[in-house]
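Sat 14:20. Reprocessing the chain from the morning session after the first attempt stalled halfway. Input below, unchanged.
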Amino acid sequence: MIKKYLKDIAFIRAFYVMYKSLTRQYGFTPKVLSNLIVFLKEYTFYKRINDNSNFYLGDECLYPCLTDRTEITPLEPTYFFQDTWAARKIFELKPDHHYDVGSSAKTIGIISQFVPVTMIDIRPIQLKLDNLFFVKGSVLALPFDDGSIDSLSSLCVIEHIGLGRYGDPIDPWGSEKSIKELKRVLKRGGVLLFSVPIDKENKVYFNAHRAFTRDYIIKLFDEFEILEERYQHGNFLYDSYDPIKGFGTGLFLLRKII
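Finished this time. Tokens:
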């Protein structure tokens, strides 16, 4: 009886977690439903007063945008801070050629307009852009020789490896193996722009990502010196690590010294 009760509780908890996740991803909230009512009222009003015959309006053209009516411009702080930080660093370093593993294609595309960039990912990009070169490959087996790259980045990538989120095989050691590959292909003296979620303890948020303590990151990069580190928590970027702040994102500029 107790075992069945616990199973029911576990199912309810799992259902609730999935519901919250879907709500975050797809915006199915009371606010959205309220906006839908507003949309229908405004559409009806628009049709009634519409006297602009230069544009066709039909019900098949409806395109409700139910989450854009906000009082401020919405920004995701992690990627806003991370990507602007990385772009500035690459601009300052001015490498002859930069390599990136798995970061945001949009961000890397922008960076490629002032520095030639080769992007490596398991999922090919279908758009072409001058100065942006794509190589299909896995962070677990990068298609480059040992010590062959001067300038490398991997932004909010390795925390996902081994959790199946992007079609990669399940592997509890996916992050450690990925870091080993990044270290392998980087030259001595080469620089790495690297970011991961950080927290006061190492955690797995299956199947989204892992979070790391600063100490564990430093341990994994023991052959590197830290040139700069920044930490994003909420809407702020800090210069030092404070575990009391809990979950956030760590941004690291590292140089290989061994």
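Residues 2-61 form one domain.
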